[in-house]
Design goal:
The chain is about 35% helix and about 25% strand. The protein contains ten helices and 17 strands. Strands 16-15-14-13-7-12-11-8-17 form a nine-stranded mixed sheet.
Length: about 375
């Protein structure tokens, strides 16, 4: 076993999740590389010191440049706001340090492209943080599709829906401003990533984008919301399959609606993240009177399940997805071989999001090659 010093930038929701994952991954997966939580960075020195104590880091700083340059930090995890991703990633890449970057990669497609090209030119291990696609159930769905079990995909329908901004009286926050903080920067990338993983590259699309609540309460009166609440688009995949993708942060009643349906020439699949330990499989060769979707509970036979639990149906949870992600990152560093999804895969998502905006603004079908 070899120790590897981990530096995490960001001590909020995702900073905590990655910290817990790095503390747990060695025991769960018995990895050869054993993370040492070396340094954490938040916006204030006092806050960073507190997070270091809470999350188990040896040291702390309020300057990300100090963390990236520290010789005891061997790999960097970026869990700060999108507008900080570019500078941090480029500095880490220049230092030859592997980088795991939360989505979206940067505040724009141009930043995502710059980060990707820099990492590839330097030959630095890199990974984009799309955790939902790592559930054992969705990994199983990818296996079923790639094996041809449901035939050729004819139609893909998916959504990522939550309701944390459904209440019009919810006050304005940082989420109310800036494209990268809206639905298309926050929720949509996850389900677009799922579409690419399950159905392949998207060729073209036509989109509509909406801000449901145009203003929100602020300390001095109504505040104008400058980003989107929901979006939808029709698309054609490179395979020729049709598709429809919807995402919303104002979908009343939905808490974690990461949902997809995949229709093929021999069968179909259904999945809902609110029931994340099961997928529904329809096989077209069933005998008459026996047709129907079968619920498959995840278990030790499915990808990345057994390290957590030996019992089928017991299930994994949200934090386990981040631990699987941490394992993938360590595997890539250990072997020197990229593990999906890389920055290039994250860039593909950013290009789709940019195409959505362009289609909405120009009111036309947009080829992704245009972006």
């Amino acid at each position: 076993m070899t120790e590897i010093g981990i530096g995490i930038i960001g001590g909020g929701y995702m900073g905590k999740a990655h910290s817990v994952a790095m503390n747990a991954v060695g025991a769960v997966f018995e990895t050869r590389l054993r993370p040492r939580c070396e340094m954490i960075c938040t916006t204030t020195a006092e806050g960073a010191e507190q997070k270091a104590q809470l999350f188990g880091f040896a040291r702390s700083t309020h300057d990300w440049r100090v963390l990236v340059a520290d010789p005891k930090v061997d790999a960097v995890i970026i869990a700060s706001t999108q507008d900080t991703h570019r500078d941090i990633a480029l500095a880490a890449i220049a230092g030859g340090k592997p980088v795991l970057c939360e989505k979206p990669m940067g505040a724009s497609v141009d930043e995502a492209r710059e980060i990707t090209e820099a990492a590839e030119a330097a030959g630095v291990i890199n990974m984009a943080a799309f955790n939902y696609v790592r559930t054992p159930a969705t990994q199983l769905a990818r296996e079923i599709i790639s094996s041809g079990e449901i035939g050729d995909i004819t139609y893909f329908r998916a959504e990522h829906t939550e309701d944390f901004f459904a209440d019009p009286d919810a006050p304005a926050t940082w989420r109310s401003h800036g494209r990268s903080n809206g639905n298309l920067g926050d929720l949509a990338p996850h389900i677009v990533n799922a579409a690419l993983a399950l159905a392949g590259p998207i060729r073209s699309l036509v989109a509509d984008v909406d801000t449901v609540h145009k203003t929100r309460p602020g300390p001095d009166g109504p505040v104008t919301v400058t980003n989107d609440d929901q979006s939808q688009f029709l698309c054609r995949f490179e395979s020729g399959a049709m598709g429809m993708i919807f995402s919303s942060r104002t979908a009343t009643g939905r808490k974690m609606g990461y949902i997809y349906e995949v229709f093929g020439t021999k069968g179909a699949l259904r999945f809902d993240q609110e029931d994340q330990n099961a997928i529904w499989l329809y096989k077209g060769d069933a005998a008459p009177g026996r047709e129907g979707f079968t619920k498959i509970l995840t278990g030790p036979e499915h990808p990345d399940y057994l390290p957590f639990c030996q019992g089928p149906g017991h299930g994994t949870g949200y934090q386990d997805q981040i631990i699987i992600e941490a394992h993938d990152f360590l595997k890539a560093i250990d072997t020197g071989q990229p593990v999906w999804p890389t920055f290039r895969d994250g860039l593909m998502v950013a290009e789709i999001i940019e195409a959505v905006w362009r289609s909405h603004e120009e009111k036309r079908w947009v080829s992704v090659d245009e972006v």
